[in-house]
């Protein structure tokens, strides 16, 4: 039985970990709000009006790809492609190829950054493995001009960050929506987490300074996991109506 992602892949370890998956989307939420193609979100209106629901929908798609047999994973990727093509047809425009690459690059980068933030430093071979998985996803979607390897991706990632970001009205509105759906306390924590996750260029465009001891709190959270009392922190930090969706992230099994 062949799977899209090997059973022993670091990608599986990353995407079955609830904490890491939430960090991936926390970082992506900051960066994508700056993306020059963010207006596409406002065409459908789904993410701006309900960002948390869209988060869990995206996680479900991602985990279907990571943990499924290859045939089912490829069908899931094709479904994602069809959804985007439907949006393009409705708008009468084509989503820029660089915008697709931007999203793909975020998944690669924040998978690495999030894992290293709460677990350990990744080996170069593991980073290359992460790149390979998402590169194959991009190829299946028909994306053009994808880098050939991890080192080339590092260069292209920097170019994309320098050329494809801007802070505008959409950026401000998206962050307002994050605050609306999370509440003041959780929104504050989101911002602090984003500050230590995102690349420097993203930090400079959104934030001013970071004086809150976020890294100290992360260390305490790691201790709480060792003591198996981390459920208390999650009960405080996560909205009640999404607790089941959050719990399901860590229960995903191979299809």
TrEMBL record:
Domain ER-bound oxygenase mpaB/mpaB'/Rubber oxygenase catalytic: 46-151
A Pfam entry, by short name: MPAB_Lcp_cat
Protein name listed in UniProt: ER-bound oxygenase mpaB/mpaB'/Rubber oxygenase catalytic domain-containing protein
Organism the protein comes from: Flavobacterium cheonanense
């Amino acid at each position: 039985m062949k799977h899209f992602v090997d059973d022993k892949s670091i990608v599986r370890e990353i995407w079955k970990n609830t904490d890491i998956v939430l960090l991936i989307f926390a970082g992506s939420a900051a960066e994508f709000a700056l993306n020059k193609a963010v207006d596409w979100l406002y065409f459908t209106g789904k993410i701006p009006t309900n960002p948390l629901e869209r988060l869990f929908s995206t996680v479900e798609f991602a985990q279907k790809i990571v943990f499924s047999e290859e045939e089912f994973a490829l069908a899931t990727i094709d479904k994602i492609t069809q959804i985007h093509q439907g949006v393009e047809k409705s708008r009468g425009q084509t989503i820029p190829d660089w915008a697709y690459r931007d999203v793909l690059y975020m998944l690669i980068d924040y998978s690495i950054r999030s894992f290293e933030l709460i677990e350990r430093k990744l080996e170069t071979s593991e980073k290359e493995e992460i790149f390979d998985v998402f590169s194959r996803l991009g190829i299946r979607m028909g994306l053009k001009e994808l880098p050939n390897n991890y080192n080339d991706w590092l260069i292209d990632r920097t170019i994309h960050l320098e050329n494809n970001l801007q802070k505008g009205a959409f950026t401000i509105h998206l962050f307002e929506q994050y605050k609306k759906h999370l509440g003041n306390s959780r929104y504050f924590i989101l911002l602090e987490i984003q500050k230590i996750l995102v690349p420097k260029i993203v930090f400079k465009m959104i934030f001013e300074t970071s004086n809150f001891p976020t890294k100290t709190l992360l260390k305490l959270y790691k201790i709480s996991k060792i003591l198996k009392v981390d459920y208390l922190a999650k009960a405080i930090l996560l909205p009640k109506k999404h607790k089941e969706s959050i719990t399901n992230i860590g229960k995903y099994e191979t299809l």
